[in-house]
Design brief:
mainly alpha; 306 residues
Length: 306
């Protein structure tokens, strides 16, 4: 690719799957297609049930619908490249994709934090639950989370656009993320490194810390409950949220660490974590919440039986 002042005009990034295992890509695309179909169907059912059933218009389910919409956006932004519809991607398309991937990932982190706040209010201050988490306030909280993430993530594509890309622009994944694209630039990427790390700290670093503090307060309140049965009942309402937290943050943090501190021997781990953190939460969130929520499960069964 040309490298002068106008060199980036014709730059494209080549997308890869498993390096050295190209002959398996067709077979690998089959489970990926299956994951996408199940994820889209599962999140669609969740959104349909919550929208059409007035009894589910409660804060917990409204937050769950926000999570499902975010997962939808993440699936749509990655489908064209992960399923191999495009084997190469232009510079601007790559920047757009990485913006939406980072945006939606960080929005999901924010919504998980809101869901932790919901559980905190429900268990620690149940008498004021309805008066604190009113529908207008829920909308404002959701919009504020999205606005916060937009402000944090928006500079990423612009910081990358100022570089020239004159190396072999082969990505080790079939999608674009900031940590990887910046390493292909023919320039000093110190500013991008610092800004990317700051972005990670302000989102997937700060949010889990606040979630942890919420659960410390929840645990403190639950342990003060005299009845053992009531204690277990209160904790049981948090199980699905805790599963969603583990599914989201474990690969996310692991991928960030391997990208910044990994070596050539960690490529396979990067590959596994890279697809796990994008595909597994949208797949598992509807399943986890459907299994653990008695009311939601009953509505879903009623829809499919009737």
């Amino acid at each position: 690719w040309p490298s002068g002042p106008q060199g980036n005009v014709s730059v494209v990034f080549l997308l890869t799957g498993i390096p050295g295992q190209e002959y398996l890509h067709l077979w690998i695309s089959i489970p990926f297609c299956f994951i996408y179909v199940i994820s889209i169907l599962g999140n669609s059912v969740i959104l349909f049930i919550i929208k059409t059933d007035p009894s589910l218009h409660e804060p917990m389910y409204i937050f769950l619908s926000m999570l499902a919409i975010t997962d939808f956006g993440l699936l749509i932004s990655t489908i064209p490249t992960i399923l191999g519809i495009f084997l190469e991607i232009s510079l601007d398309a790559c920047f757009a994709q990485l913006f939406f991937i980072h945006l939606l990932q960080d929005v999901e982190s924010s919504f998980l934090l809101l869901m932790a706040f919901d559980r905190f209010i429900a268990i620690c201050n149940p008498l004021r639950y309805a008066s604190i988490l009113t529908p207008p306030r829920l909308v404002k909280m959701g919009l504020l989370c999205v606005l916060r993430v937009v402000v944090i993530v928006l500079p990423l594509p612009f910081l990358l656009k100022r570089f020239q890309y004159c190396r072999a622009n082969v990505l080790s994944h079939s999608y674009c993320i900031h940590q990887e694209v910046m390493k292909l630039a023919c320039a000093d990427i110190t500013v991008n490194n610092i800004f990317g790390l700051s972005t990670a700290v302000l989102t997937v670093g700060l949010d889990p810390l606040l979630i942890f503090l919420s659960y410390v307060m929840i645990l403190k309140t639950v342990l003060s409950i005299a009845s053992h049965e009531e204690c277990l009942k209160a904790l049981n309402t948090c199980v699905s949220h805790l599963c969603a937290i583990l599914l989201f943050y474990t690969p996310n943090i692991g991928l960030a660490v391997t990208h910044r501190f990994g070596n050539s021997s960690s490529h396979l781990l990067q590959f596994v974590l890279g697809y796990f953190y994008l595909l597994v939460p949208p797949l598992m969130n509807p399943i986890v919440y459907s299994v653990k929520s008695k009311h939601l499960r009953a509505r879903i069964i009623r829809v499919f039986i009737n």
